[in-house]
Design a protein that fits this description.
The chain is an alpha+beta fold. Helices cover 22% and strands 43% of the residues. The chain is built from three helices and eleven strands.
Length: 254
Protein backbone atom coordinates (compact mmCIF):
# COMPACT_ATOMS: atom_id res chain seq x y z
CA UNK A 1 0.00 0.00 0.00
CA UNK A 2 1.40 3.39 -1.00
CA UNK A 3 1.74 5.88 1.83
CA UNK A 4 0.38 9.42 1.43
CA UNK A 5 3.17 11.94 0.84
CA UNK A 6 3.15 15.69 1.22
CA UNK A 7 6.10 18.00 0.53
CA UNK A 8 5.98 21.61 1.72
CA UNK A 9 8.60 24.35 1.71
CA UNK A 10 8.40 24.98 5.46
CA UNK A 11 6.70 23.81 8.62
CA UNK A 12 5.09 26.24 11.05
CA UNK A 13 3.96 23.90 13.82
CA UNK A 14 5.04 20.36 14.76
CA UNK A 15 4.54 18.04 17.72
CA UNK A 16 7.66 17.38 19.73
CA UNK A 17 9.60 14.31 18.66
CA UNK A 18 9.59 13.15 22.28
CA UNK A 19 6.08 11.82 21.59
CA UNK A 20 7.76 8.82 19.99
CA UNK A 21 8.91 7.56 23.37
CA UNK A 22 5.54 7.95 25.03
CA UNK A 23 2.72 5.37 25.19
CA UNK A 24 -0.05 5.25 22.63
CA UNK A 25 -2.82 7.81 22.98
CA UNK A 26 -0.26 10.31 24.34
CA UNK A 27 -0.78 13.93 23.42
CA UNK A 28 2.20 16.22 22.86
CA UNK A 29 2.14 19.99 23.08
CA UNK A 30 2.73 21.91 19.88
CA UNK A 31 6.22 23.37 19.60
CA UNK A 32 7.42 26.06 17.24
CA UNK A 33 9.99 24.64 14.80
CA UNK A 34 11.69 26.58 12.04
CA UNK A 35 12.38 24.58 8.90
CA UNK A 36 14.50 26.09 6.16
CA UNK A 37 14.34 23.13 3.80
CA UNK A 38 11.41 21.32 2.20
CA UNK A 39 9.17 19.38 4.59
CA UNK A 40 7.93 15.86 3.88
CA UNK A 41 4.99 14.31 5.71
CA UNK A 42 4.78 10.50 5.58
CA UNK A 43 1.94 8.27 6.81
CA UNK A 44 3.15 4.72 7.40
CA UNK A 45 1.12 1.70 8.49
CA UNK A 46 2.79 -1.52 9.58
CA UNK A 47 1.11 -4.67 10.88
CA UNK A 48 2.42 -7.91 12.31
CA UNK A 49 0.64 -11.23 12.64
CA UNK A 50 1.03 -13.45 15.66
CA UNK A 51 -0.51 -16.62 17.02
CA UNK A 52 -3.51 -15.87 19.29
CA UNK A 53 -3.55 -16.93 22.92
CA UNK A 54 -7.18 -16.20 23.75
CA UNK A 55 -10.57 -17.01 22.18
CA UNK A 56 -13.90 -15.32 22.91
CA UNK A 57 -17.17 -17.10 22.25
CA UNK A 58 -20.80 -16.15 22.77
CA UNK A 59 -23.34 -18.58 24.19
CA UNK A 60 -27.02 -18.11 24.88
CA UNK A 61 -30.43 -19.62 25.37
CA UNK A 62 -33.67 -18.64 23.66
CA UNK A 63 -36.97 -19.70 25.23
CA UNK A 64 -40.64 -19.28 24.29
CA UNK A 65 -43.76 -19.44 26.44
CA UNK A 66 -47.37 -18.14 26.44
CA UNK A 67 -46.65 -15.48 29.10
CA UNK A 68 -43.71 -13.17 29.71
CA UNK A 69 -43.24 -14.43 33.28
CA UNK A 70 -43.20 -18.05 32.19
CA UNK A 71 -40.80 -17.34 29.32
CA UNK A 72 -38.40 -15.47 31.63
CA UNK A 73 -38.48 -18.15 34.32
CA UNK A 74 -37.91 -20.90 31.78
CA UNK A 75 -35.07 -19.02 30.14
CA UNK A 76 -33.39 -18.19 33.46
CA UNK A 77 -33.41 -21.84 34.53
CA UNK A 78 -31.94 -22.99 31.20
CA UNK A 79 -29.34 -20.23 31.13
CA UNK A 80 -28.24 -21.06 34.66
CA UNK A 81 -27.46 -24.60 33.49
CA UNK A 82 -25.27 -23.19 30.72
CA UNK A 83 -23.44 -20.85 33.11
CA UNK A 84 -22.91 -23.67 35.61
CA UNK A 85 -21.47 -25.79 32.82
CA UNK A 86 -19.11 -22.98 31.79
CA UNK A 87 -17.81 -22.69 35.35
CA UNK A 88 -17.49 -26.49 35.63
CA UNK A 89 -15.10 -26.36 32.66
CA UNK A 90 -12.70 -24.35 34.81
CA UNK A 91 -13.46 -20.92 33.33
CA UNK A 92 -13.06 -18.12 35.87
CA UNK A 93 -16.08 -16.01 36.80
CA UNK A 94 -14.28 -12.85 35.63
CA UNK A 95 -14.16 -14.32 32.12
CA UNK A 96 -17.95 -14.77 31.92
CA UNK A 97 -20.01 -11.67 31.15
CA UNK A 98 -23.71 -11.26 30.36
CA UNK A 99 -24.04 -9.35 27.10
CA UNK A 100 -27.80 -9.13 26.70
CA UNK A 101 -31.21 -10.24 27.96
CA UNK A 102 -34.13 -9.63 25.61
CA UNK A 103 -37.88 -10.14 25.99
CA UNK A 104 -40.14 -9.82 22.94
CA UNK A 105 -43.73 -10.59 22.08
CA UNK A 106 -44.17 -13.10 19.26
CA UNK A 107 -46.71 -12.66 16.47
CA UNK A 108 -47.65 -14.55 13.34
CA UNK A 109 -49.27 -12.86 10.36
CA UNK A 110 -52.60 -14.28 9.24
CA UNK A 111 -52.65 -13.67 5.49
CA UNK A 112 -56.29 -14.67 5.13
CA UNK A 113 -57.48 -12.39 7.89
CA UNK A 114 -54.74 -9.84 7.24
CA UNK A 115 -53.98 -9.43 10.91
CA UNK A 116 -51.32 -10.17 13.51
CA UNK A 117 -51.95 -13.13 15.80
CA UNK A 118 -50.27 -13.12 19.20
CA UNK A 119 -48.29 -16.33 19.83
CA UNK A 120 -46.55 -15.68 23.13
CA UNK A 121 -43.23 -14.33 24.36
CA UNK A 122 -39.63 -15.03 23.54
CA UNK A 123 -36.70 -14.45 25.92
CA UNK A 124 -33.04 -14.68 25.03
CA UNK A 125 -30.04 -14.44 27.35
CA UNK A 126 -26.45 -14.37 26.12
CA UNK A 127 -23.02 -14.40 27.72
CA UNK A 128 -19.54 -13.73 26.40
CA UNK A 129 -16.88 -16.21 27.49
CA UNK A 130 -13.10 -15.77 27.33
CA UNK A 131 -11.13 -18.96 26.81
CA UNK A 132 -7.48 -18.79 27.77
CA UNK A 133 -6.84 -22.34 26.54
CA UNK A 134 -7.79 -21.91 22.92
CA UNK A 135 -7.09 -25.56 22.18
CA UNK A 136 -10.23 -26.33 24.23
CA UNK A 137 -12.51 -24.12 22.11
CA UNK A 138 -14.18 -26.97 20.21
CA UNK A 139 -14.67 -28.99 23.38
CA UNK A 140 -16.20 -26.01 25.18
CA UNK A 141 -18.62 -25.29 22.32
CA UNK A 142 -19.75 -28.92 22.33
CA UNK A 143 -20.22 -28.87 26.11
CA UNK A 144 -22.32 -25.69 25.93
CA UNK A 145 -24.68 -27.20 23.38
CA UNK A 146 -25.00 -30.29 25.55
CA UNK A 147 -25.84 -28.03 28.51
CA UNK A 148 -28.71 -26.41 26.59
CA UNK A 149 -27.20 -23.46 24.71
CA UNK A 150 -29.23 -22.70 21.60
CA UNK A 151 -27.17 -19.78 20.29
CA UNK A 152 -23.42 -19.80 19.72
CA UNK A 153 -21.19 -17.17 18.16
CA UNK A 154 -17.48 -16.85 17.52
CA UNK A 155 -14.87 -17.84 18.23
CA UNK A 156 -13.01 -14.53 17.98
CA UNK A 157 -9.28 -14.96 18.46
CA UNK A 158 -6.97 -12.34 19.99
CA UNK A 159 -3.82 -11.88 22.02
CA UNK A 160 -4.16 -10.80 25.62
CA UNK A 161 -1.01 -8.66 25.62
CA UNK A 162 0.07 -7.37 22.22
CA UNK A 163 2.72 -4.90 23.44
CA UNK A 164 5.59 -6.91 21.97
CA UNK A 165 3.80 -7.25 18.63
CA UNK A 166 3.09 -3.52 18.51
CA UNK A 167 6.72 -2.76 19.35
CA UNK A 168 7.77 -4.88 16.38
CA UNK A 169 5.26 -3.08 14.13
CA UNK A 170 6.46 0.31 15.42
CA UNK A 171 10.11 -0.56 14.67
CA UNK A 172 9.25 -1.64 11.13
CA UNK A 173 7.16 1.49 10.53
CA UNK A 174 9.98 3.77 11.67
CA UNK A 175 12.50 1.94 9.51
CA UNK A 176 10.27 2.27 6.45
CA UNK A 177 9.62 5.94 7.12
CA UNK A 178 13.33 6.66 7.54
CA UNK A 179 14.23 4.79 4.35
CA UNK A 180 11.53 6.62 2.40
CA UNK A 181 12.53 10.07 3.71
CA UNK A 182 16.21 9.38 3.01
CA UNK A 183 15.37 8.31 -0.53
CA UNK A 184 13.41 11.51 -1.17
CA UNK A 185 16.27 13.57 0.22
CA UNK A 186 18.72 11.90 -2.17
CA UNK A 187 16.42 12.29 -5.17
CA UNK A 188 15.93 15.98 -4.41
CA UNK A 189 19.62 16.70 -3.86
CA UNK A 190 19.73 16.83 -0.07
CA UNK A 191 22.08 15.02 2.30
CA UNK A 192 19.45 13.62 4.62
CA UNK A 193 16.20 14.11 6.52
CA UNK A 194 15.62 15.42 10.05
CA UNK A 195 12.57 14.37 12.11
CA UNK A 196 10.34 17.29 13.08
CA UNK A 197 7.32 15.50 14.50
CA UNK A 198 5.85 12.05 15.14
CA UNK A 199 2.21 11.10 15.63
CA UNK A 200 1.05 7.55 16.34
CA UNK A 201 -2.23 5.68 16.28
CA UNK A 202 -2.84 2.02 17.06
CA UNK A 203 -5.17 -0.54 15.52
CA UNK A 204 -6.28 -3.18 17.99
CA UNK A 205 -5.64 -6.86 17.57
CA UNK A 206 -8.42 -8.92 16.11
CA UNK A 207 -9.26 -12.02 14.12
CA UNK A 208 -8.33 -12.11 10.45
CA UNK A 209 -11.35 -14.25 9.43
CA UNK A 210 -14.92 -13.17 10.14
CA UNK A 211 -16.79 -14.88 12.94
CA UNK A 212 -20.22 -16.42 12.54
CA UNK A 213 -23.24 -17.19 14.69
CA UNK A 214 -24.73 -20.66 14.94
CA UNK A 215 -28.31 -21.20 16.05
CA UNK A 216 -29.17 -24.63 17.41
CA UNK A 217 -32.61 -26.10 17.85
CA UNK A 218 -33.41 -27.82 21.10
CA UNK A 219 -33.96 -31.19 19.41
CA UNK A 220 -30.78 -31.01 17.33
CA UNK A 221 -28.77 -34.24 17.77
CA UNK A 222 -25.42 -34.11 19.57
CA UNK A 223 -22.38 -34.07 17.32
CA UNK A 224 -18.63 -34.33 17.64
CA UNK A 225 -16.83 -31.20 18.88
CA UNK A 226 -16.45 -28.75 15.98
CA UNK A 227 -12.92 -28.40 14.57
CA UNK A 228 -11.41 -25.00 15.39
CA UNK A 229 -8.38 -23.45 13.68
CA UNK A 230 -7.01 -20.38 15.55
CA UNK A 231 -4.99 -19.10 12.58
CA UNK A 232 -3.21 -15.79 13.14
CA UNK A 233 -4.33 -12.38 14.37
CA UNK A 234 -3.09 -8.99 13.23
CA UNK A 235 -2.11 -5.89 15.19
CA UNK A 236 -0.61 -2.73 13.79
CA UNK A 237 0.73 0.78 14.19
CA UNK A 238 0.09 3.88 12.09
CA UNK A 239 2.62 6.68 12.36
CA UNK A 240 2.70 10.10 10.75
CA UNK A 241 6.22 11.54 10.63
CA UNK A 242 7.25 14.96 9.40
CA UNK A 243 10.79 15.37 8.10
CA UNK A 244 12.81 18.35 6.97
CA UNK A 245 15.16 17.71 4.08
CA UNK A 246 18.59 19.00 5.13
CA UNK A 247 22.17 19.36 4.00
CA UNK A 248 25.15 18.72 6.27
CA UNK A 249 25.63 22.43 6.80
CA UNK A 250 21.96 23.03 7.69
CA UNK A 251 21.84 24.56 11.20
CA UNK A 252 19.83 22.76 13.86
CA UNK A 253 16.52 24.49 14.62
CA UNK A 254 16.29 25.79 18.14
Amino acid sequence: MEEPLMIRPALALAATAAALALPAQTYAANVEIDASGPVIELDIYEAVTVAPDMATIGAGVTSEAPTAVEALRMNSAEMQKVIDRIKALGIAEKDIQTTGINLNARYDYDREGQRQIFRGYQVSNRVSVKLRKIEDTGKVLDALVAAGATDLSGPNFSIENDDAAKDAARKRALERATDRATAYAAMLGYDGARVLSVRESISGSGPMPESAMLRMSADMPSAAPPPVQPGMVSTGISISITYELVNKDTPEAG
